[in-house]
Amino acid sequence: MLIKRPNDIKTSEITDEKIYHQRRAFLQTGSRAALAVAAGAAFPGLMFSNDAAAQIAALQFKKNARFSTDEKVNSLKDITRYNNFYEFGTDKTDPAKYAHTLKTDPWNVRVEGEVEKPADYQIEDLIKDSQLEERIYRLRCVEAWSMVIPWVGIPLSALIKRFKPTSKARYVEFTTLHDPKQMPGQKRGVLDWPYVEGLRMDEAMHPLTLLAVGLYGQVLPNQNGAPIRLVVPWKYGFKNIKSIVKIRFTETMPNTTWNLSGPQEYGFYANVNPEVDHPRWSQGRERRIGEFFKRKTDMFNGYEEQVASLYSGMDLRRHY
Amino acid sequence: MRDVKPFVSPKLVKPLVFMACLLPLAFGIWAGFTDQLGANPIEEITHRTGDWALRLLLITLAATPLRRMLGWGWPLRVRRMLGLFTFFYACLHLLTYFVLDQFFDWEEILKDIIKRPYITIGFSAFVLLVPLAVTSTNAMMRRLGKRWGQLHQLVYVIAVFGILHYLWLVKADYLLPLIHAAILLALLLVRAWYQRQSLSIRRTAPQPP
Questions:
Q1: How many beta-carbon pairs under 8 angstroms link A with B?
Q2: Residue of A nearest to B167 (CA)
Q3: How far apart (Å, rounded) are the C-alpha atoms in residues A279 and B119?
Q4: CA-based nearest distance A101→chain B, Å
């Protein structure tokens, strides 16, 4: 099981007070929502909060300060109630309402393609040999809003080394679960399911690239991509594929979902770039959730120093 | 025309519709004060005001078809009010964009209006609404006479622009804009149908000797 209950550590030692209070607030909103359901309000999915409450389990992790921003972290409520996860609906409040139908235990991840030993891994086996780290990253959505999120996870590079990709592996392709029963949003062909994302090998091996299994020190809530999701902080949010069931190493560039949906609007690279606008809106500024004034968007979402070298010599207007 | 017994006294229709049209605003303000606008309140307010401007526009356009098909007279009596509420929510929508979203960054706003097709067409729809609101008084109707009707044909252009504005801004899920488009199309078809009928009636009517 992914959920570890460390008996030897007191809750107070692993949960700072602020997070504790945010957790209380999260539970309170949850019970209020449950009351609303009881009162007959038309929000069928809000009961998720009770499951979430039962699920809340602290993860053991070390804080990685070197890779963390010291910016103000967004609240757990904002992070878990406002996000895109089209598998549960296209409104940003849908994932929180409907993701309770996702079953994350047991969960297998198939590793295949250009690797020495293609195999199915239980998620516990995937992460057991790595030390979980908390990394506070900025997340910039292609829709021009942003958040600061304390993820818990492991560097993707650690796993890739274990998988031993062959010399032909130039890209990594990730696939989300495809099961309309668990993911009701997949009953409508809004996107070409299953959701597929990809990275170039050097991007996947970059130390900033994270596979997250937790948020705010707790197991990932379903609506945020449980049980395992990608986090690439210098790219637009849609690259951060959620609820991964397949990792495939390929020689050719994977066809990714949003790129197929709108090739002029969503590129394979999708690096945060204030100079290259989305055809329909500006990418020069963003609204940080919780702030009134828009702020300037930074090149590579502020990770330019760490990642710019990956793209030296590339025309980023063409490879958007 | 069928003789329909009214559910409510005709005197009450106007105040009731007036209050009903204020409900979205009231709910919005209530949601604002009780922290129910979500993580991105500015986006939520933008969406709500825009949704209601478009919905009220379609409701306004339903007045004539409702009279033709069901014989209801009361929608026509509140049509002007509905049109003005459409304008009211469109104003709130635009103000939200100017003030809350862009905070009077006129350079950025101008760039948006010129460069972003969905904003260009949405803004055009608003600009076209202004003369209709200004000429909505009885005095203006009398003054403009026949031209008043011609001017107010603009409402069809505005409706098409409004729906294109919606259609062009969504990322992948076109369902809601297409539902609005289907409703507009249905309303226009009903009008066209009755217009053709009245034309053919005129044509087949016995000519005066």
A1: 52
A2: A280
A3: 12
A4: 22
Nearest to B96 by CA among B165, B28, B26: B28
- pTM, two decimal places: 0.85
Asked if A67 and A206 count as a contact pair (C-beta separation under 8 A), the reply is no
Q: Do B108 and A190 touch (CB under 8 A)?
A: no
- Domain A64-311: which topology? Sulfite Oxidase; Chain A, domain 2 (3.90.420)
Phi, psi dihedral angles at B116 (to 5 degrees): -100, 110
Domains of chain B, by residue range, sit at 10-197
Closest residue in A to B100 (Cα) is: A292
- Interface check for A290 against chain B (CB to CB < 8 A): the answer is yes
pLDDT (tens, 9 = 90+) of chain A, 320 residues, equals 455 444 444 444 444 544 444 444 444 444 444 433 343 333 333 334 444 443 446 789 999 999 999 999 999 999 999 999 999 999 999 999 999 999 999 999 999 999 998 999 999 999 988 999 999 999 999 999 999 999 999 999 999 999 999 999 999 999 999 999 999 999 999 999 999 999 999 999 999 999 999 999 999 999 999 999 999 999 999 999 999 999 999 999 999 999 999 999 999 999 999 999 999 999 999 999 999 999 999 999 999 999 999 999 999 999 99
- ipTM, two decimals: 0.88
List chain A residues with CB under 8 Å of B169: 280
Asked if A221 and A80 touch (Cβ cutoff 8 Å), the reply is yes
